[in-house]
Design goal:
The protein is α+β, with helices and mostly antiparallel strands and about 425 residues long. Helix content is about 30%, strand content about 10%.
């Protein structure tokens, strides 16, 4: 009995060893077929997001549902991408069947038509939230917009690899990565998570910024193919309140869309190395516990939950006692940018500075539209006096809340 048991054990051991040898041989044989060509990104060209999907299908499908993927859509492939009603009297002079691409899907939508070898935007735009049309500037798309609405743009040939902000817009041209030598998969593509904080932020800032490149484009045309590898400042002049006062509030924050990077540069977050992807995800499908759906701004958590995931020591004292039920972002990321003419301020500051009512008094002569502030963003509907708001803040700093005499003025004010 014991002899039979030993024979069985020996047989099983031999079978196991044989399987290990066979499996190792097969893996080595397979590895030999993965020859590859490249060790780095030198000379890489664009291959398109569909090529990335072959290996990264999950990430591709997550990205496909984001605003980046929908910033520019081919209306011949997807006619439903056109959100505006072209039977409206205001746009009946424009033929819908001439439209090649739709730009935008959240706030507003513009439309591209082709004339000769280039594209132009129609001189009207559809405001999605208001369901209205308004006159817009007719733009040469390659000159004014292409680099931030399409991937793999070639300004010389006036071509692009794909519409929208595709995989390679952030990860760089992927041809070498597709044919990488075994073991060099990492060095043949850009991964923002492996970059320094500034280099990572520059990837986003190449589109989410206000400025000009050396050729006069409002996007860094020569930087596009080396995002993450090169320095944005060698190709692009990032504006600020001094160099372009029309695009910035007197306090320094951007007053026109796409100035998030400009704001971020003046923030404590930038100094601490807190970048865009610390707060925002680019492709993700995970839903947090207690969170319904994904935030429209693609933040990793909603509202205060995101702020307090780092700022855990904030206490309800002094200024923070004013609104214990309030929101971090209403004070430190007030809405100061308008997207369309018909709506109020919609986009938030990314300097993360509290904009005191004193700024409106000092720079705006008391006019919110000349210099916004954090408090009036909510209190404008109550017509709250700016001096009262300043006094509330001072009283909070002094621990004199909740009824500072100076802020409430004298009893005669109330008719007593």
């Amino acid at each position: 009995m014991r002899k039979s048991f030993l024979l069985i054990m020996i047989f099983l051991i031999l079978i196991s060893v044989g399987l290990i040898i066979f499996t190792t041989w097969k893996l080595k044989a397979k590895h030999k077929t993965l020859t590859g060509k490249y060790k780095n990104m030198s000379g890489a060209t664009y291959v398109g997001s569909q090529e990335c999907k072959k290996c990264h299908e999950r990430k591709y499908l997550e990205w496909k549902a984001t605003l980046h993927a929908k910033i520019m859509q081919d209306v011949k492939e997807n006619p439903m991408a056109i959100l505006g009603d072209f039977s409206h009297p205001q746009v009946q002079g424009f033929k819908k069947d001439l439209i090649e691409y739709a730009l935008g899907s959240k706030w507003r939508q513009q439309y591209l038509i082709k004339e000769g070898d280039t594209y132009y935007t129609l001189p009207v735009q559809y405001n999605i939230w208001e369901n209205t049309w308004e006159v817009a500037e007719r733009k040469d798309w390659f000159k004014e917009c292409a680099g931030c609405h399409a991937t793999g743009v070639d300004l010389t040939k006036k071509t692009f690899k794909e519409p929208g902000v595709g995989c390679e817009a952030c990860h760089g041209p992927g041809s070498n990565h597709v044919e990488a030598m075994p073991g060099y998969e990492i060095t043949t593509i850009i991964n923002p998570a492996r970059l320094t904080p500034l280099a990572s932020a520059q990837l986003c800032g190449s589109c989410h910024s206000i400025g000009k490149d050396k050729a006069g484009h409002p996007y860094p045309s020569q930087y596009l193919s080396i995002r993450g590898a090169g320095n944005l400042y060698n190709y692009f002049s990032v504006d600020n309140q001094k160099t372009n006062p029309q695009a910035f509030w007197p306090s320094g924050e951007a007053k026109v869309p796409y100035g998030e990077y400009n704001d971020w540069l003046m923030s404590a977050h930038a100094q601490a190395g807190i970048t865009c992807t610390n707060c925002h995800f680019i492709h993700e499908s995970k839903i947090k516990v207690g969170q319904i759906g994904l935030p429209p701004t693609q933040t990793r958590q909603i509202g205060d939950n995101l702020c307090k995931s780092c700022h855990q020591t904030t206490e309800n004292r002094m200024v923070h006692r004013i609104h214990t039920f309030g929101s971090c972002i209403e004070c430190h990321m007030p809405k100061i940018v308008k997207i369309t003419k018909g709506r109020s301020y919609e986009l938030r500051s990314h300097s993360f500075n509290f904009l005191s009512p004193e700024l409106t008094i000092r720079f705006g002569a008391g006019n919110f539209d000349r210099q916004p502030n954090s408090c009036s963003g909510c209190h404008y509907h109550k017509k709250t006096n700016l001096l009262d708001l300043v006094e509330f803040l001072d009283a909070a700093k002094k621990g004199d809340m909740p009824l500072p005499f100076s802020a409430h003025r004298r009893p005669e004010r109330w008719g007593w």
